[in-house]
Amino acid sequence: MADEAAERPLVARVGVAVRKMGAQSVLLSNAMAALFGLTTTELECLDVLFMREEASAGDLARATGLTSGAMTALLDRLERAGYVARRGDPSDRRRVLLRIRPEAIAPIEAMYAPLAERSFALWASFSDAELAIVERFLARSLELGVSCTQDLQAGTGKPPARRRGTRPGPRRDAAGHKPSR
User: Fold this and answer.
1) pLDDT value of residue 67
2) pLDDT at position 4
């Protein structure tokens, strides 16, 4: 992989930039969740539900990789806190659907509004042709991330066994270098 990175330094730089962006996204979610007394997982589940508009607990469990029991407990907490509402599925009486309660997430949306405005302004500075490439890159990267997550959840992506008393080493970029901090 180090040879490939040396031959394609831009690919290596994009890899590092994507990792940095992912890490920053996690840090932002942690900070935002803390402001509202939520866990990061609860906040991200709210976001998944917000984007889907309506979903069953099973749909959300599959989307997040949480077990059905963990998802039920999480949704119970979100319902008690007033963030989600449950209703019967009119096409399947055994199934319960969940929706975001818009008035409950309004304060969260207000906190994200400045980021959304600044992001839109940044993205609008690119041409439609550039944005089409970015959109394709993000869509394919998302598909890859979903596939890798599913592999890990299925146990096909197990890490090698570590020797007793050892710790994992520092993360490295695509070129094999330690990231600078």
Assistant:
1) 87
2) 73
